[in-house]
Amino acid sequence: MGGCRSLGTVKSSEDAQRDQFRDSAVPSGSVHSDRMLGLALAMGVLLALVGCTATEHCAAPQDLVCRLLQSMEGSIKPGEVPNPSILLAMSLLGVDTQSPNYKLLLQEIKEEVVTRAQKAMTSGQVAEHVLALLSSCQDPRQVHALGQTIDLISILQQKTDEEMVELEDKGHPKTTLFSVSLDTMALCLVRADRYRGPAVALAKEVLSPNSPISVDTRAVAVLALVCVHDNVEDPEVQDLLHEAVWTVTNNFLDEQEERKGMIGNIYSMGLALQALEASRDFYAPQDWDCAQAFAVVTNHTFELPMAIAQVLPALVGMSYLDAATLNCGAPMDLCPSLGTHRVPTGIMSPPGASQTPRESQDITVHYSITNNLQGIPWHYSISVTVPGDSTLLEVLERAEEMDPENFSFKTEQTSWGPFVVSIHGLAGSDNDRTYWQFLSSGKPLDQGVGTYKPHSGEHIQAIFSTY
User: Fold this and answer.
1) Under DSSP, is residue 258 helix (H, G, I), strand (E, B) or coil?
2) How far apart are CA 319 and CA 4, in angstroms?
3) Per DSSP, what are the bridge partners of residue 381?
4) What is the Cα–Cα distance from 128 to 230, expressed in whole angstroms?
């Protein structure tokens, strides 16, 4: 596989909802410590797709990076639940920390932390906020807001310990391995205590043939294991972590080659690219054709700010492992022409792409709901007619209008869009590890209900499931 060279070479450096975007079943050996890439992009660096070596790295076209950044920033609105992944991406891209959007998001994240971290956040959500604060040069051990000060690292350590107790006792964590991966990475980056144990457990999980793990979970696990590998001295632990990273990344490279650039699905590509960029020393001498992978990403129209936030760092050769080494006092303005104008989220397309108008012709979608897990099993089916180009959420709304007794449902807003938490009065539960899984003709969807668009005659199934 061939590498890729940019004109300016750069040195290497909500869990059930995420399942709707995952592939079906939601820092490196040399950490990037400065923002030379931002300077290179600001000088007009473009992607060079051929004639490169394994030691050189890909960077996306500046215009694409700027349009994605513009779309992502356009989603920041006062009063809405702040997304730490967006702040993390803005920091990694060198957005001016004094810009109004940046200051607004940072303040709202601090307020969210002091009010919800202890009682209302999962370990993974706490870890995401730690990464966001680190990237903005804030001390997560002393978060000040609303007249309060909390130690977010102590909270994260406590919640990570709870994950590990259940993993050891029950064979699965309290939430998900994705959360444990985020926890381990965040604890490692702040050099906190007790990240070695979770890292060893993660390595064993990703190496287990009986533990199928999604692409995005394995990608974040790679980031966590790379960080821990570089910060432990025990040779046996280092060997285990190296084997796990080598195994995952070589599987990613093989899948990319077989599927002509795709790893998992488009929503797992951002994290997979970050993992491959951050772990180059681990899968050498195998080469990474980053141009092939970048081509898949740059040819996709991203609508969700969360998806953009995960892919943007990879497009400029960075990863979440760079969050703790940024120079917040010297931001690089990658996109000086943007000014204060913001484009509404969901209209950013690759170069040359055209916006498809909403189809006027109606379509018929078959929709069924099934519960075989709790109480007396039940199953209901309905066929609904909706305008062409309708989302699955609109299909569910139409089904509820037609038969509210059987097809009532509730959603919660997440960073990945609306998430169905209840159907026919039956709600998923973190304690029972249950949720509503959506499938098309028996295959899990790779998008959420707010973005997936069924075709005419399609059979959509909602099945009460466990994870």
Assistant:
1) helix
2) 17
3) 368
4) 21
Rounded Cα gap, residues 146 and 110, in angstroms: 9
> In the chain, what's the furthest Cα-to-Cα distance?
64
Q: Tell me the whole-structure pTM to 2 decimals.
A: 0.80
Number of other residues whose CB lies within 10 A of the CB of residue 410: 12
Rounded mean pLDDT for each run of 10 residues along the chain, 467 residues in total: 31 43 36 35 34 56 92 92 96 92 96 96 97 97 96 98 96 94 98 95 94 93 98 96 98 96 94 96 92 92 92 95 88 62 39 47 96 96 95 97 97 89 94 92 89 95 94
Q: How far apart are CA 361 and CA 413, in angstroms?
A: 29
Q: Is the preceding omega at residue 285 within 30 degrees of 0, hence cis?
A: yes
- Relative to beta strand 143-145, strand 443-444 is unpaired
> Considering only CA atoms, which of 276, 320, 321 is closest in space to residue 294?
276
**Three-state DSSP class for 171?**
coil
Q: Which two three-digit tokens encode residue 363?
A: 């379509």
Name the nearest CA neighbour of 84 among 58, 62, 56, 112: 112
- Give 361's DSSP letter: S
Dihedrals φ, ψ of 440, to 5°? -120, 115
